[in-house]
Each structure stands twice: as structure tokens, then as C-alpha cells.
Amino acid sequence: MDLPPPDLSPSQVVNETLSLLKEVLSSHDTAVSSVSEQQSAYEKIMNCLLDPLLQCCMVAANRMNSADSATYMINCLHNVETCLGVFEFTDVKLDVLSTQIAIHVETLAKGASRIHIGALDIGNTL
């Protein structure tokens, strides 16, 4: 995967994959009869598409500084959350995504704190 766009929005590959995921999950809504079959199918589809996609996002993010990396990952994870949020049987995956977003938000907050402490030159007094 190439580097993310300069505005750190999800790349075209991310958006295209999420569009494909949405189409596949939508078609499964009507194609599968039982609830357990539908849940199993959703989990398989999500694992097959999302795990490699998120891995690619992480690889791209690892080539940036920590603030840009965290921002890019938050943007990608948010788009995945938005995509999955309209479907049943995605609660577990949504919880995982929410936790990952929180970790990246914490990274941003710590980085901002370090910058402000450094700018105020109070780091040695803390």
C-alpha cells in the first residue's frame, strides 16, 4: 500500500475495499436463511476483508511519524466503523475497532502533551 494522502484520509484502496465489504454484507442479508448462518457468514467475510485491509493500513502508517500514523489509523478505523455500523452481527468487531481508535487517540494526546510541555519548558519541573 502506498503512503496515505497528505490529508491523512483513508486511501482509495481502503474506501474501495469498504465499498466492496458493504456490497457483500448487503447481499448476504437476503441470501442466508438462519440467524446463526448469517452471523457465521458475516464473521468470515469481515475476517477475510478487514484483517488484511487493516494490516495494510498499519504498514502504511508505520512509515510516518507517530502523530500522522495515529491520525491516519483513526481515520481508517472510523471509516470501517461507519461501514460496519449499519449491519447486524458486527458488535464484536465494532468493539475491537473502538478500542483501537482509543489507543490511537491516546497516542495523539500524549504527543500533544509532550509538545506543550516542551514549549513551556516545564519538563524538568514535573
Could you please describe the fold and organization of this structure?
With 126 residues, the chain is mainly α. It has one domain (12-121). The chain has helices spanning 12-31, 35-61, 66-84, 91-120. α3 (66-84) runs antiparallel to α4. The radius of gyration is 18 Å and the shape is elongated. The N and C termini lie far apart (41 Å). The mean pLDDT is 88.
Mean of residue pLDDT values: 88
Count every beta strand, where a strand is a DSSP E run of 2 or more residues.
0
Shape: elongated
Overall number of structural domains: 1
Could you state the order of secondary-structure elements as H and E?
HHHH
Largest sheet: none
Number of helical elements = 4
C-alpha termini separation? 41 Å
Please identify the structural class as seen in this structure: mainly alpha
Q: What percent of the residues sit in helical stretches (DSSP H or I)?
A: over 70%
> In percent terms, what proportion of residues is strand?
under 5%
Backbone CA Rg: 18 Å
Poorly predicted regions are none
